[in-house]
Amino acid sequence: MFNSIREDIASVFDRDPAARSTWEVLTCYPGFHALRIHRVANWLWHRNLRWLGRLVSHIGRFLTGIEIHPGATIGRRFFIDHGMGVVIGETAEIGDDVTLYHGVTLGGTSWNKGKRHPTLRNRVVIGAGAKVLGPIIVGEGAKIGSNAVVVKDVPPGASAVGIPARFILDEQDKSREEKAAKLGFSAYAVTAKAADDPLAKALQGLLDHSMEQDHRLERLQQDIEALKGRAEDDRAVTERFAPGRLRAAGDK
Ligand SMILES: CC(C)(COP(=O)(O)OP(=O)(O)OC[C@H]1O[C@@H](n2cnc3c(N)ncnc32)[C@H](O)[C@@H]1OP(=O)(O)O)[C@@H](O)C(=O)NCCC(=O)NCCS
Question: What is the pLDDT of residue 64?
């Protein structure tokens, strides 16, 4: 247990530059308190002490302004910064090294009893005020912008912003878009969302191959230009030391 507390404190230092001392984290970080209280509530919940679990969770909410259902599954080094107004539903699943800011909701969109809350994979960051709704999956390392409303799966590593959330293209996707535009079509829906679509993957492969060929051609062109320059220098030197010119210089 002490190891897990130490780990939670270290994750506050890693992710909040404002944290100054362990004592400060122990006494002034509602996110840290909420997590520790949730560990107790969750332990009770899984021992069929459901009402007691709910009561402990409710006390945690009263003290911290963070509402975590005791049934929610939370991984290691979870950090909620500021915390006020965070709501985490019963069937939410949270991986390791996840960060949430204040006002985040991991909520449901139906009253069905089964899985109805999101699953966050490892290293997900969710900005202040964002709402992540339904039994969707937020892929590993994805970022959700502040105040976004996310109702569809987010691919690993993607950033999602706005209402409803749209994905921001990464650098590789941007290059693919530019290449596709040069070839006369739009790669929208081919980039970023291609993970499960073989046709989109094939197109990505072709775009990448075409970009690689462009780079090679560019490099070849540069080499040819450099060789041309060198050949001209060589010719100038040869002309300066040509036997005719040397003889003429000798005659003078
Ligand atoms: C979503 C986020 C992670 C994006 O970071 P990023 O990948 O570096 O993206 P950029 O800043 O390059 O922005 C890319 C585009 O998304 C837009 N954007 C960024 N964050 C946005 C948001 N929250 N809502 C709407 N649009 C947003 C930018 O304006 C930009 O648009 P453009 O391409 O049309 O110019 C970040 O902006 C964010 O919201 N982080 C949460 C921070 C937070 O809640 N802090 C609380 C501290 S108390």
Answer: 98
CA 125 to centroid of ligand 1, rounded, Å: 12
pTM: 0.73
Instruction: Judge if the beta carbon of residue 210 lies within 6 A of ligand 1.
Output: no
- Atom index in ligand 1 nearest the CA of residue 127 equals 44
Please report the DSSP string for the chain in residue order.
Answer: -HHHHHHHHHHHHHH-TT---HHHHHHH-HHHHHHHHHHHHHHHHTTT-HHHHHHHHHHHHHHHS-EE-TT-EE-TT-EEES-TT-EE-TT-EE-SS-EEETT-EEE-SS--SSS-S-EE-TT-EE-TT-EEESS-EE-TT-EE-TT-EE-S-B-TT-EEETTTTEEEP-HHHHHHHHHHHHHTS--TTTSSSGGG-HHHHHHHHHHHHHHHHHHHHHHHHHHHHHHHHHHHHHHHHHHHT-HHHHHHHHH-
Q: Tell whether the model's pLDDT for residue 97 goes beyond 90.
A: yes
pLDDT band, very low/low/confident/very high, at 139 (cuts 50, 70, 90): very high
91 Cβ inside 6 Å of ligand 1: no
